[in-house]
Amino acid sequence: MNNTQDPTTDDMLIETDVTDGMSESLDLTDRDTIVRSRNVNVWYGSDQALHDITMDIPENSVTAMVGPSGCGKSTFLRCINRMNDLIDSARVEGELSIRGKNVYDDDVDPVALRRRVGMVFQKPNPFPKSIYDNVAYGLNIQNIEGDHDEIVERSLKRAALWDEVKDRLDESGLELSGGQQQRLCIARAIAPDPEVILMDEPASALDPVATSQIEDLVEELAEDYTVIIVTHNMQQAARISDKTAVFLTGGELVEFDDTQKIFENPESQRVEDYITGKFG
Questions:
Q1: Distance CA 80, CA 65 (A)
Q2: Per-residue confidence (pLDDT) for residue 155, from 0 to 100
Q3: Alpha-carbon span 266 to 280, nearest angstrom
Q4: At what angle do helices 178-190 and 208-221 cross, to 10 degrees?
Q5: Where are the transmembrane segments (predicted)?
Q6: What is the spatial distance between Cα 261 and Cα 241, in angstroms, rounded to a whole number?
Q7: CA neighbor of 55 nearest in space, from 14, 69, 72, 70
Q8: Per-domain residue ranges for the chain?
Q9: pLDDT given for residue 95 in this prediction
């Protein structure tokens, strides 16, 4: 069962910033794995959405999560930054850590966590503000020091949007095309320099050209960030990801491995059947 709620305005306002709110007791010796889950279970009321999810997600990489609708991909994604806390009926058990610190420990501030973990939603959701103010939003509300003009320019360049908007930064972000709006949202997410970027089907509402631009951008972002992306597009996962997690109906993680192995030589017959289109 996936999260059935669309992101609210409040959800969008807590995308990312830089904070010390989760810096205590972090294990910085384990540099290879940044996100680690152990036996993560999620319920919405009496319905169990995820069953004993265990995986280690490496830093500075792209990890794709694939599987049929309703298999729990987005639910797990939202566990990482505790967005499921916003759903009254949601309950999470197990351990999910970032750099060795369980994000569900009592001393972890969920809002501070979300400031370290950026999120890009399925549909572009720029604020009704100028292009510049969209990117600078997190910098302003979080009182991040530094040259904001420089950070905005750098973020737009990282999002492959600068050349298209550098002469119109005062125009509304809502006037951009769909693909440009999504890249603007990515620039907004990376401006405060988070550690992890979550993407929930970021190209599903875009045309092929815009989708290709987003895919190129995801691969570039992995040089500086850890990207975890949910996608229904198997070819997209094969093209851009280093690791692939295959979720199947019932909220079960059936296989998690290098993407090439998942697509060329999966261990599970169920995964092979799904990859080859025999079901799902």
A1: 13
A2: 96
A3: 16
A4: 10
A5: none
A6: 12
A7: 72
A8: 9-126+195-275
A9: 96
Low-confidence ranges of the chain (pLDDT < 70): 1-31, 279-280
Q: What is the CATH number of domain 9-126+195-275?
A: 3.40.50.300
Q: How does pLDDT run across 43-58, given as a tens digit for each residue?
A: 999 999 999 999 999 9
Length of the chain: 280
Q: Which residues of 6-19 are buried (b: 16+ CB within 10 A; e: fewer)?
A: ebeeebbebbbbbb
Q: What is the pLDDT of residue 15?
A: 40
pLDDT of amino acid 152? 97
State the Cα–Cα distance between residues 181 and 247, nearest whole angstrom.
Answer: 29
Long-range interactions of 70-74: CB distance < 8 A, separation 24+: 70/1, 70/2, 70/249, 71/2, 71/247, 71/248, 71/249, 71/250, 71/251, 71/252, 72/1, 72/2, 72/42, 72/247, 72/251, 72/252, 73/2, 73/230, 73/247, 74/2, 74/3, 74/200, 74/230
Cβ-defined contacts of 132-135 (< 8 Å, 24+) = 132/169, 132/170, 134/173, 134/184, 134/185, 134/187, 134/188, 135/184, 135/187, 135/188, 135/191
Q: What is the pTM assigned to this prediction?
A: 0.86
